[in-house]
Amino acid sequence: MATETPPATAASAKGATRKGDRIFLGLSRGSGITLLAIMAAIAVFLTWRAALAIGADEANFLTSFEWDANADPPRFGIAVLAFGTVVSSVLAMVLAVPVAVGIALFISHYAPRKLAAPLGYVIDLLAAVPSIVYGLWGALFLVPHLTGLYTWMDTYLGWTGLFTYHGGAARSLFTVGILLAIMILPIVTNVSREVFRQSPKMQEEAALALGATRWEVIRMSVLPFGRSGVISASMLGLGRALGETMAVATVLSPSFLIKASLLEPGGGTFAQNIAAGFKEAGSTGRDALIASGLVLFVITLLVNGAARLIIARRKEYSGANA
Amino acid sequence: MSRTAVADAPVDRAAPPVSTLRQPRLPRWAPLGLAAVAAVLGIGIGLVGGLDSRLQWGLIAAVLYLGLTAVLASTVEGTRQAKDRLATSVIWVCFLLAVVPLASLLWETLVRGAKVLDGYFLTHSMSGVITLEPGGGIYHALIGTLEQVGLATLIAAPLGLLTAVYLVEYGTGRLAKAITFFVDVMTGIPSIVAGLFILSFWIIILDFGYSGFAGAMALAILMMPIVVRSTEEMLKLVPNELREASLALGVPKWKTIIKVVLPTAVGGITTGIMLAVARIAGESAPILLLVFGSAEINNNPFDGAQSSLPYFIYEQWALGNEASYDRAWAAALVLIAFVMILNLVARGIARWKAPKH
């Protein structure tokens, strides 16, 4: 019995190997290729509609400050939208990433162990809170509570010209930046925490054994290990901030003007403009919105590509391969 | 106090070697004590200075705490310890700073949302409701969300899972590199751009109408890269020894993947998929462009406008009166609860299916 069975199973296994493997490889490779095809289709279809719109545009698409896409002839440009998008997202990054790294370190290395697990849990849950809820909270709770801060900033930082404020509802790009920062905080924290938690325990223990303080351990072993992870986390955050639609649409009071002061209402972002203008848009208007969406797409593409390159270049030093 | 111990040390013959090895330390209760002092000072300065915002009191106390800790630690314990303590305090402050808005978000939603949330709200649509007056509900939006998200998951989960398997188990060449790169790029696609793509392709060019299915396709585009990335991470965590052991026993590769690799990682994969579902369940931008929104119940996702929970919140907010604000908060509460329950179930599955040691 025992002497007969091995050859039989080996033979049947060999047959199954080839066929099953081929099908499975085909399926999984096919999915990968589908994914690439979708990306290509996104680029092609958006470019096509955008080309139609830009062809009909009577103003300069890149530098014009107006948006009359439904007029005849249509005149529209993305200068204001590009400015608003970049300013609010960069502001969100600057505010959120240091705090997020702090929280991530707190959870992975500082919090009492009993507290750390539930905290990580809570942050996970917060990362899942939908953007429209942030938008609702931003519009109905955050905006009324920011006037005090803005008056203070106007008094002490008004001389820079960036932070002058003349009262009224705080529906400005700065508010958008703050809200976006709060929104991306859980995601950036989450990803960073995962990375920090995986940092090599042996290195940390070795550093501690050599007499390093906890901060020195973090600076010499955790942060270098986690650097590419933090960049990747920030990238995710920036991607979400750049393309955030509903939270911006509810909080910002839009206008097609670039103002020197970040605290004054006005400005706009790509995504917000699409959401706000879509229902009234005619056929050219829609194509114009698609054209602005294409620009947003290209910007996020560049940001993600650049972050990807940074991660790839630093990987060999970061110890992520260890 | 530690200083005095060192000064007295020469009297005790056994002490000097100890004191050279161990630097003087602040007592264990020092951070708590300093925090209390800083809090009292912060409140004091706030009262004397006539600052009416509690937030300012808190900020002053935080800054005082950081300063006091740094000064005390550097005089007693030396620069390195001082840096360590400063870093610890900064990280604590970071944490507390972040908790405030997030806690406020949850609290506001809970308190304001509970006002009109009841059985009637969950089982009725907005059909025929005058928006200025209380009444109506989210039944139509719930149906829409469930159908759109379900369809999106049916499209995205298998594709994403198989792509991740390809990347981890098979992919080595140029194709795998391209896919990895574009999955990363795809994670960054704004939801509104995915919506615009389906709009131009499905509605403008192929001339289909607005429907739940159009929205589901956009949601699937958003979901796919999340599934791929989380699954990929999980598959990479599966120890190679398991694969090698299985292959060495003569098990074919596809069977190794299905019977060994995927079951080992199934907890993480399920969690990843459910988190992706939770993420897309809250997307309103593609719904705005593709499903168009409706006050009526439409059970067919393939034909005609539908609503969805996030869209409903936006719609009610945009109406801008108290009754619709109440409905928006209640819908937000339902949406958050939905997302949280998904998360909790995902965690439960992750724990239940986790490899036993």
UniProtKB/TrEMBL annotation, chain A:
The chain crosses the membrane at residues 32-56, 76-107, 119-143, 163-188, 288-311. Its main location: membrane. PROSITE patterns: ABC_TM1. InterPro entries: MetI-like, MetI-like_sf, Phosphate_PstC, Phosphate_Transport_Permease. One of its GO terms (cellular component) is plasma membrane. Coiled coil: none annotated. GO terms for biological process: phosphate ion transport. Keywords: Cell membrane, Membrane, Phosphate transport, Transmembrane, Transmembrane helix, Transport. Belongs to the binding-protein-dependent transport system permease family. CysTW subfamily. Part of the binding-protein-dependent transport system for phosphate; probably responsible for the translocation of the substrate across the membrane. NCBIfam families: phosphate_pstC. This is Phosphate transport system permease protein. The lineage of its organism: Bacteria, Bacillati, Actinomycetota, Actinomycetes, Kitasatosporales.
TrEMBL record, chain B:
Its main location: membrane. GO terms for molecular function: phosphate transmembrane transporter activity. PROSITE patterns: ABC_TM1. Belongs to the binding-protein-dependent transport system permease family. CysTW subfamily. This is Phosphate transport system permease protein PstA. It comes from the Bacteria. It is a multi-pass membrane protein. The chain crosses the membrane at residues 29-49, 55-74, 86-107, 149-168, 180-204, 210-228, 260-281, 328-346. Part of the binding-protein-dependent transport system for phosphate; probably responsible for the translocation of the substrate across the membrane. GO terms for cellular component: plasma membrane. The keyword Membrane applies. Residues 142-346 form the ABC transmembrane type-1 domain. NCBIfam families: 3a0107s02c. It holds the Pfam family BPD_transp_1. GO terms for biological process: phosphate ion transmembrane transport. It is found in: Cell membrane. PANTHER family: PHOSPHATE TRANSPORT SYSTEM PERMEASE PROTEIN PSTA. Keywords: Cell membrane, Membrane, Phosphate transport, Transmembrane, Transmembrane helix, Transport.
